[in-house]
Amino acid sequence: MIIVPDTVEFVRKDGRAYNELRPVKIKAGVLKRADGSSYIELGSNKILAAVYGPRDPQITKIKRPDRAIIRCRYNMAPFSVEERKRPGPDRRSIEISKITAEALAPSIILEKFPRSSIDIFIEVLEADGGTRCAGITAASVALADAGIPLRDLVVACSAGKVNGHVVLDLTEEEDKEGEADVPVAIMPRTKEITLLQVDGELTPEELEKAIDLAIEGCMSINKLQKKSIERKIWVY
Ligand code: CDP
């Protein structure tokens, strides 16, 4: 007889259930000099987000007459990963900067600020898988903290496939060992998806399951995002 492992009973290396997030902490308004800021911890991930603007981008040719532009820089500190990360942008950080700006754009009422820019900085201080999602979540809180008019917050969370099981919020180890990682960002009021990436291989059914699971994770994290903005205290 073949025993098919049941996803519900599958226990992960760190003891979490398949649908369990790592502990999350978010704080808004952590930097005095930024217009808006936030700090997030998701398991061992530690990430700062700072927002400046709307402000004059200083470069005439990138200004848009009808709306603000978003400039985003995702950066990993050299000490944030096991093997020292060479400082400066690389292909991965350029990609994450781009998809982060795109994931946040639908939530920002950009038309209100023609010819200006909204600048978002995401600094990963410690990384353990899922930093792009945690960075997007933190950046959205920082945008709200800056008083920038938003249609909704954006919250992100990833799900994926590890040892044949669809699980929520992969650690770096699970990401490396696993078969697939699916980062998802949504605007929780409408559940409109603003980011969907698939790295790895899943069946259509598994992909659907991963997206549903990631959205569930997003909805839980969104509660903390909202609290952090209301109270400007540690919420977890
Ligand atoms: O962080 P995220 O899952 O969004 O992106 P990834 O490219 O799938 O990277 C997964 C993890 O690999 C990161 O969170 C880091 O923990 C680790 N990593 C690393 O150790 N060194 C790098 N240069 C890049 C990523």
Question: What this model shows, in words?
Answer:
Keywords: Cytoplasm, Exonuclease, Exosome, Hydrolase, Nuclease. It is an enzyme of class 3 (hydrolase). The protein is of the alpha+beta class and 236 residues long. The chain has one domain: 2-Layer Sandwich (Ribosomal Protein S5, domain 2). Helix content is 27%, strand content 29%. The chain contains four helices and ten strands; from the N terminus they run E-E-E-E-H-E-H-E-E-H-E-E-E-H. The strands form two sheets. Strands 1-2-3-5-4 form a five-stranded mixed β-sheet. Strands 6, 7, 8, 9 and 10 form a five-stranded antiparallel β-sheet that branches. Helix 1 links the parallel strand 4 and strand 5. Helix 1 packs across helix 2 and helix 2 packs parallel to helix 4 (204-231). The longest helix has 28 residues, at 204-231. It starts with 23 loop residues before the first strand and ends in a 5-residue tail after the last helix. The mean pLDDT is 94. The protein binds cytidine-5'-diphosphate.
